[in-house]
Amino acid sequence: LAGQTVMSMGGEEANYLITVRAALNNGAMLYRIHGSNRDEALDELLSSLPNTSGLDVSGIKMAVLTQESLASSSLKGVACMRPGRNTPYFVPRSIIITGFLEKPVDFKAFDRKKVEVIFLSLPANEVEEAILDVRLRRLLMDQEFLAAIKAQPSRRELMELVKKTEERLMPSPSKKGTTGHGDAAVSPDSATA
To answer: Where are the beta strands (DSSP E) in 88-184?
Structure first.
């Protein structure tokens, strides 16, 4: 791939270089999320979506809950929620909404740990959905990162933590290296030569 975007299966452009940091920057961070169950916590996260965006909030909620009904996305006290692949819901720009719960809540996790942090991923397309899911789960495999997010850092601290950890664990391809898709990266200068 010569650039960072190509057409995905649905006809929209997919950003193969999307990062968790970029999606977090497009989204919101909410603290002291109330709710005694998964549905109430999800309602509070979805309330952060702008009413003027034309998004079908109830459709998004049903798509997320459909996926969660198959198997809880929660492990180690962190839920990585997203609409299901069988009920996809795409937004204009990939976003991740982060919610820090006031009190841990039982999300029926396989490891039986109550959820303290929710990452709700709303992708722009199926390519970015897959990339963000892998990148976010890789971040959560890092014990230092996991401990830091459970401390409920400020937005600025979380963004810096994500940036540093993503760069350390999943460095971006260099301009003169490869894109990670088997093709040599092409700089703007060499593309016209």
So the answer is: 95-105, 115-122
Mean pLDDT of 152-175: 91
d(CA 182, CA 166): 21
Cβ pair 97, 30 in contact under 8 A: yes
* 153, 161 contact by CB (below 8 A): yes
Q: Whole-model pTM? A: 0.82
Count of CA atoms in the C-beta half-sphere (13 A) of 57: 13
Please say whether the dihedral angle defined by the alpha carbons of residues 148, 98, 116 and 79, taken in this order, is positive or negative: negative
Tens-place pLDDT, residues 102-161? 999 999 999 999 999 999 999 999 999 999 999 999 999 999 999 999 999 999 999 999
Question: Is residue 65 within 8 Å of residue 57, measured between CB atoms?
Answer: no
DSSP 47: T
Cα angle value 25/50/157 (rounded, 5°)? 25
| C-alpha dist (Å) from residue 155 to 13, 62, 82, 97, 149 | 28, 28, 21, 12, 11
The amino acid at residue 8 is: S
Strand pairing class (29-33; 95-105): parallel
Tally of CA atoms within 13 A in the half-sphere of 74 that contains its CB: 23
Among all chains, which residue has been given the structure tokens 């890092």?
A: 142
* Structure tokens that stand for 15 in this block: 């950003």
**Single-letter amino acid, residue 117:** V
